[in-house]
Request: fold
Amino acid sequence: MKVSEIGEFGLIDLLAEMIGDVADDRLILTIGDDTAAWHGDTSIQLATVDSLIQDTYFSFDTASWEEVGWKALAVNLSDIAAMGGIPRYVLVSLSLPGNTEVENVIALYRGMLDLAHRFKVAIIGGNISNSPKVAIHVTVLGSALDKDSHILTRTTAQPGDKIVVTGQLGASNAGLKMLLEGLTFEPEATAAFRKAFLTPYPRITEGQQLVKYGVKTAVDISDGLIADLGHICQASKVGARLEVDHVPVSPHVQANFGGDALAMALTGGEEYQLLFTATPGQIDSVKAVISCPLAVIGEITAEHTGEIVLVDSDGNPVDLPGTGWDHFAKRK
Amino acid sequence: MKVSEIGEFGLIDLLAEMIGDVADDRLILTIGDDTAAWHGDTSIQLATVDSLIQDTYFSFDTASWEEVGWKALAVNLSDIAAMGGIPRYVLVSLSLPGNTEVENVIALYRGMLDLAHRFKVAIIGGNISNSPKVAIHVTVLGSALDKDSHILTRTTAQPGDKIVVTGQLGASNAGLKMLLEGLTFEPEATAAFRKAFLTPYPRITEGQQLVKYGVKTAVDISDGLIADLGHICQASKVGARLEVDHVPVSPHVQANFGGDALAMALTGGEEYQLLFTATPGQIDSVKAVISCPLAVIGEITAEHTGEIVLVDSDGNPVDLPGTGWDHFAKRK
Reply:
């Protein structure tokens, strides 16, 4: 059996089973949430690793070294954001060919440091290795807000919780399509799509605000809204009713992709918005302080465990023609 | 300017300068020692990352997936050993082609878990990405022995300290040569060379014993004895007199490589023995408890800062013919 046949999630499940339960009563979360988490001497500690591989996840034909550096750190900070934590320290394991221009490596680090400085995160270590393609593996260490703070997990969604998403969706997917297919748009849309795909801004502040107002359940949207909502449903053993008319599609995506826009917002990965579940009271509290839009897009249900029912504004089930998604889309 | 022209250490120096001093009074060590280190809530915390890249650092023509898994973790545990710390948690960022056999990935993890279990280390997270070649980037988190324990650094060597090395040297380099050049030896030497190169046993226990008996200065031998002693000398702003006749060359290397054996022991990388400096009293205390051989191979000097003078047992300077090393070998 090949890895491509069981897929990334199949392989992760298999390895998680092999690793088994670890006899360490400090551990809170291991494989399967946005970060690992354990009880430190006082506060909860967090660690996550993610990688960008040249010509698999990005190409220097369409992205600058600086943008790749930013993104390599951003996707990891987004995992800390999804826990409502504070990112602190970064280790960078960088592979590159010997004939790489030094100034390109400097540009890559400039991109990482630009983002790191915004969140007072320090690059404290790393490793450089020789490889035919560029690969950036970034580990971020962080902690809960303070010694009494909880973290946001994917196992705590309750029937009756509202489903909420920060910001707007679809622009990262539009950026990927634009770069891959050489599409052209008016300058403002072009800039928005490029930024969404290559230099996303992790929702660190927003994740911390969720913790402060008692929200318990969140993920970042890295695999796509439906897929990541599916992760919450499976981990929490609940279902979800997703009101597609309330999904906040980026206006630039709406204007330029028309009939495909909703599907892009529902299934496009690498959006790095936060998806969370909360009570109406918690949502009102968060809305009063948060600086980004929040959209209530559905409700957690007791029935259809692990499944997501897509409905229109009248509550009728909908299919998404041409997307491969039906209204009982069951996601791994 | 290409990366290959300034080399790994040149690039690291440049990036370290770019990253600059981090305004974080908890940080103890960042780039430039075996691990990063900072003051946790009670004890000192450690983090390190290192990688193995297929066809650059290993080949599946000569190494099994299990051996590669072991080694990927071992080289990182060795960095924690060099700090005298306790390894605790591991994150694995694994890149592989989609057509990789799942059972090979399982064998890779079996190799990692075999070693992890010996030191009660838990794999708590990771990431899997798609890449044309296999690459394993391992991050290990650890801590000092307890809240009052110091860590071993490379900046604390003092003139008059003896230079000491654990175990024997040269067998890893012999293993590399054996696999690369298809050399054949008697079974016992073959096994010893293979083990030294592919499944080294990190000196975790020994590093902790050094801390307990007051030793302050250590590195693990990853770049080669002379190169790593050079790192201590530069970081501590001292010189070193290295008595080549006392260097513990592996008997198998001596028997099979004759005239090249000493040079292999002095310059071969990836040996993962500990190299430390200590007072004679500390050495006696450590010798009484440690289970591996210790060899005193020279002395730290105030003169020739950053340089290593190679001498014979009469104290006369020696050259190593045919190795490219002279007795003033200055190492970056």
Q: What stands out?
A: The two ends of chain B are 19 Å apart (CA to CA). The domain at 3-143 of chain B is CATH 3.30.1330.10 (60s Ribosomal Protein L30; Chain: A;). Chain B is about 35% helix and 25% strand.
